[in-house]
Design a protein that fits this description.
7-stranded mixed beta sheet; 3-stranded antiparallel beta sheet; 10 helices
Length: 273
Amino acid sequence: MVAIELKDSEFLEIREHMKRHFGISMGDEKRTLVFSRLRPLLREKGFQNFTQLIDFIKADKTGEATVALTNRLTTNHTFFMREAEHFDYLRERVFPWIERTFGHEKDLRLWCAASSSGEEAYTLQMLASDYFEGKPGWNLEILATDISENVLAQASHGIYSNESLSTLPKDWLKKYFNKYDGSNMIVKDEVKQRITFRKFNLMETKMPFKRKFQVIFCRNVMIYFDADTRAAICDRLGKALEKDGYLFLGHSESISNMNLGFKYMQPAVYQVV
C-alpha cells in the first residue's frame, strides 16, 4: 500500500479553498492539522490521494463536500461561562441599556455569531432569562449561528456532560436543565425554544436579517482571519448593530487600531458610535 502524503500543491489548494469560501487563513503550521483531519475523509470516500478529494469538492454542486471539509478543519472549542467578565458586563451594563432604550418594544435582539456547540448561546439565554424575569412582555429570543452543521446539531440537542456544567451556578442547573442520564444533563425545552440555531457564513457580504441587533457576540473566531478579512467582517457586524449597540470579541482579538466606527469599552468589548 502506498503511503498517502499531502503534497505542497494539494495543501495550497485546500488552503485557498478555505480562504475563498470561509475567510479562514491557514498558515504552513496548519499543514499537519489538515493532513490528520482529512486523511480519515479520504479513507471514507475511497480516495487514493488528496488530489482526488480536491477534485471531488470542486465537482460537488450540492455543497455537501465543502460542508464536510469545513466540519473537519474548523476547531470548535468552547465552554460555559468562557471569559466570564463579558457576561458580567452584559448583565450590569448592557441589559439595563436595552431595557431603558428598547423598553417600548420589549424586544431583545442578540446574535451569537460563532455559536459552536451551543454553550455560549445557552449561557446568554439563561443570563437574559434571569435578568428579564419579572419584567413581563419581553421577547427574549436569541439567534445563534455557525458554519458547521455538526456543531449546530449538537447545540440544538442541548446535551452536556455534568463535568462541563460545573462552571454554572447551581440554581441555573435546577432552573434550566433536566437530568439526561448518569453523566449528562439536557437543556429544558423552554430554553431551547428561545434560541434559533442557523447555519451562516460570516463571509457573506449581505446580512440576511430584517432588523438590527442590540448585541453581537462574535468571540474567538477572528483569530482565524487575516487583518483585511477581520476588518471587513467587523464592518458588516457594525452595520448590523443598532446605534450604541455592543460587539463582544474574544480576549485575544482586538479592533482598537482599526477605524471601523467602534468605541473601546473594556477588553474585547466595543460599542458602535
